[in-house]
Design brief:
Layout lengths: L1 H23 L9 H14 L21 H37 L9 H12 L7 H24 L11 H11 L5 H12 L3 H13 L8 H9 L12 H5 L3 H21 L8 H17 L4 H16 L6 H18 L15 H10 L5 E3 L4 H7 L17 H12 L4 H8 L3 E5 L5 H8 L4 E6 L3 E6 L7
Parallel strand pairs: 1-2
Antiparallel strand pairs: 2-4, 3-4
Helix pairs in contact: 1-3, 1-4, 2-3, 2-16, 3-5, 4-13, 4-14, 5-6, 5-7, 6-8, 7-8, 7-12, 11-12, 11-13, 12-13
Length: 471
Amino acid sequence: MSRTHDVRASWILTFLLLSFVFLAAFCLIIEADIPWYLSAGEEMLKTKTLLLNDPFSYTSELPWINHEWLMEILLALIYRGAGDGGLSIFQGFIFIAIALVFLKMRSQAALDGVSFLGIISAFIILREFVSPRAQLLSNLFFVLSIWIVFLSIKRESSDQKKREPLLLIIPLGFLWTQFHGGNPHLFILMFLLWLSRPSWKRAAFTVVAALLTCMGPNGFQVHDHLFRSFPMMGEISEWQPIYYVLKNIPILFSCLILLFVFSALVSLIRRRSANDKTYRFEALVFAFFLLATMKYSRFLNELMLVSTIVLLPLLEKIKIDRKYIFASCFGVILLGALFSSRTMGIGFSPHFFPIEAVQFLKQNHLKGPLFNSYNFGGYLMWEYPEEKVFIDSRAFTVYDGRQIAELVNVYSHPQEFQILDDQYHFELAVLQQRGRGKKLIEWLKQRPNWNVVFEDEIAVILIKKKIQNKP
């Protein structure tokens, strides 16, 4: 009777965990990339061709390194079928899949102890960065790859004669490259596995993982474009140190620092366990992504996932009464809701996208050439395709470093805008009120040949006046 009760309680806990994880993904979209994903995917579905040249911007002079082509098509199909709600449901299912991999990695069958609370806490932090882009799917592939490594180490330690689990990285890596081409994480994991447990077989899988990153439509160029653009990459937020990105969210930053310190301590404690066969691999992965995240904030998702994996073996050994687990989870969820920077909802956030401004453009049929802020390019591409954009958040996959440098220079020295204007002959400008572009807005407002025709808290629209020379 007691055993039946425990099994039932474990199933209830699992159901509640997955339900929370699914609902946590229902956040308003704030990621500037999502609109251009939809535009590109829809264009490929219509033309039935892979986009390797950019049809959306009039300033791009390079071939498009379209390394996320399959993700673009997938999102366009989801949007066709279910609209904004479909994107949120997609996020929810990916979150559930990641949670299930966490559960499969655990050594115990029943969902007991503080591990339940640990997984919920991890997803409260992960939801702060959730977005239906290729990175989200990469998170799933990342934890799947670690699970495959665990299975391989377990097989080796038990002298089982089953098929080598590492063979699964070949189809996984190929699929990963189509969704998020050039992502080096599988190669990094295989290299760290070889470093932790050297063998010729693991060295061979490391080479295979490296080759798989070039198996997309752009081949090695998917890496080459990053090397060429490296001097300017620091101007993009995801390539900035974690402190600069999270300095406006001090509570989240403090929680992450405590989490990573605790993970490091747990990693040291686990070192003393003779039965812990995966320790060396996990410690190397944790150390690598901790250092990488300190330098580049784009690795924060991976560090969060690794920290959760490192902590779970310890958390599942801490046994407390389930009623206290429920109470603790309720408290953690409440704190997460109070201090979250994300708004629950479906669709694009009106606080990040120029929704009202684009409606004004449509109603008045304003014509370009268009100058636009970097973060607005994707949304304009999606909602106002009548005009090609000046720039957008595809960054170095479409534009060269010189163009990014010119934009940064204009933000810092608005008077340099005239040089761009002489080159492109702008007739229309859609600018972001927040961030770097504020100086440029104020400068343009003072120009006699530019006139503000729309302004709200998010965006400003200016059109060029037709000034006639007096005889």
